[in-house]
Amino acid sequence: MTKKTTFSDETDLFRASVGEVRAIQHNQVVLRPRPKPKPVPRKTDTLASDPLQNKVDEELELLYQEDSMAFLAPGVQKAVLKKLRKGRYGVHAEIDLHGLNSQQAHHYLLQSIHICTEDGARCILIIHGKGYHSPNTQPVLKNDLNFWLRQHKDVLAFCSAPAKSGGTGALLVLLKLGEKFADDETAF
Length: 188
Known about the structure:
Layout: H1 8-18, E1 70-72, H2 78-86, E2 93-96, H3 102-119, E3 123-127, H4 140-151, E4 155-160, E5 170-175
Parallel strand pairs: 2-3
Antiparallel strand pairs: 1-4, 3-5, 4-5
């Protein structure tokens, strides 16, 4: 290998750009890796963004004990509601609101739906009861759920459950996929 010839002005330029150089005392280097910081999970605050974002356009009429209900979000095909009524979607979770007042049920419902979407549950059964002990034979939770679920951003459809699952005292609810499951697009 031949030695490269350097000119004095190149050497002067190199020395000027490198600056002052210190001689190394020894050729051993002790590497001490910095301790890695402990991982901190991201907190998702369920109350940070209000999940009840959709507006209910029409005036909802009050439901009675044996009235059935159904809802389909805009842009969702009618066949989805038919499949939901026939029980074609497996129930992944069950939420029981028996014995709760309206405020407790609202809080518990929002928490439960958030957990279900985070866990990838698509179809849930909400048991609200028929409201036999409600004043004026108008079930409170049934009417509240009819309003709340229509407003919820993650609800695609809901309908009264089949008789074997609670009939008009329960609802089958179809939810959107959670963000972390968006890549696993499964057909309806």
